[in-house]
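Thread: Modeling a multi-component assembly for a lab meeting

Hi all, long-time lurker, first post. My supervisor asked me to bring a structural picture of a complex we are working on to next week's group meeting, and I have zero experience with this. I have the sequence lines for every component (609 residues in total). Could someone generate the structure of the whole assembly? Inputs are pasted exactly as I received them:
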Amino acid sequence: MDDLQLQQLGGPLTIGLLVLFFGLTMLISLRISRRKENADAYMTAGNGIGLGVSAASMTATWIWAASMYASATSGYVYGISGPIHYGLWGALMILFIYPYGRRIRAVAPRAHTLAEVMYARHGRSSQLMLAGSNVLGSVISLTSNFIAGGALISMLSPFSFSQGIVVIAGGVLLYTLWSGFRASVLTDFIQVCAMLGAVVVVIPAIFFAMGGPSVFIEGASNLTPQQTSFFSSDAFLNQGAPYIAAVLAYAIGNQTIAQRLFAVREDLIKPTFITATVGYGATIIGIGMLGVVALYAGINPMEGDLNNLIPQLAGTYFGPVLLSVFFIMIIGSLASTADSDLSALSSIMMADIYGRAGKRKADPRLMLTIGRATMVIATGAALYFAGARMNILDLLVLVGAIWGALVFPVIASFYWEKVTNKAFTVSVLAALAIFFPVRFGWIPMDGAVGYVFDVIAVVGVGVVAGLMTFGFFGARAARIVGFIAAVAVAPFAIGFLHDYAVLSGSLIAYAVSTVVCTAMSLSNQDGFDFSRIARMTGDFDVEEAEPAAASAAAPARSGSQIPQTR
Amino acid sequence: MTPFWLTAYVLMWPVIVAGVLAFIARAFFKEWLDAHRRGEPMI
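Re: Modeling a multi-component assembly
Sure thing. I ran the full set together rather than chain by chain. Output:
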């Protein structure tokens, strides 16, 4: 397979597909654009979008090109259970956070960012921790999507990587710049149609082109016993378990998800999250199956790079028509996530860095300018990082760790009135201070030290299990499940968990932030009035043309009428 | 696992994806029609 020639799209066809894709999204964006955009709508589209748009947008945002490649890699490396250990956990995390989403929306019905809510709940340091981690996370995600686009174009067309990233970046920026989040969510519908429609065709097409069911007979000898098992411990410990810890953090901490949570009509949160769970899971596991089939077929990834596997299969087995369908599938997945990242970044800069800073009243016109300038600067930065082929893996680990350390303090802040700004801040910093030495092996894990960290990581297992239970069944059930999970895992984990640095580091971040935040909050005698959050996170851009409606709504929802510091 | 079940395991996902796509598209066009009838923008 190594010397196979890949089918390419050809210059005119590639340009035609890109013009078709970005032209259509641009047309949609132009149709909804207003000469005078509203700053709040630019961030949350008016807090009332319907099920079709919100479910499409949540699904499209959660699916990115890297997740398709990673699921196929998991299938190729770990065999038949590999895609499940990538896609199923990612999907379930959308479901697990939905009760938290309802709670967040209930206490902050007209907020724009999660960091803005943290400002209302705690103060500036908590807000900036969440906002800063999201700026970093979104720029990394943007970079990763540009790299995926550039790599795809360079592999399947005569154009270079550099030309590819510039076209992708320019296309996404153009249709998102003017209308912001409104353009992002509405174009997500077209993108999800293109993406899911292509998945329906691409998976069976590649499977049958590779030989269909016979590949499972002829290639059975290519798999190890672990790779043929549905209950592979290799797959769970190396892929599934670290991913559970990581995606819980991503789902809670990521502004792209929070933004959709604040945008959807409140009674549609549940069906939106359920649809996105099923849509994401089936799409990503399905694409992962191509990695399993490639393993059976004995295919070697080009240049030894597993990220090449999916484009390589398409380029090997598809003619121009199906290759075009595949091309649109990947472009759709990366564009939908990239426009979400741009919208998330602009909202953070508009609401958190400018809007909720100091006592002065925010100017909605200036907010819009800040939002648009942020998009342009972020696109430039991501292009620079992508062009330099910067290794973003370490940065991704950093963001994952910050979000992992934030999960318990953030969730507790919405339910437990005793959590303080100091407890929030100290617990996150303490978790990070222990995470880094563990994750990067700066502490020798020989003897008792390794055992101590294993015990902390086992507490982290209990925390993750408890958090997944708490949203649905409450604190008592969460404590029971967390305790049982920790006790059940302890005999198998203590003594060897420190050998898995990624998993161990993530679990320790959860455990330390939970223990420190809880211990510090218990001593607090004052309770927090959650109704203050709604009063402090209202609209910025109240229409002067509708003074009656605005003044009627102001006491309940308009942050501009309320002092912005406590 | 037999080749039959492995084949079903591979091909069940695009079927589910098709179902989700149909659900999203139906909801979207229903909202679009409602907005159109009311003469309001969809978003």
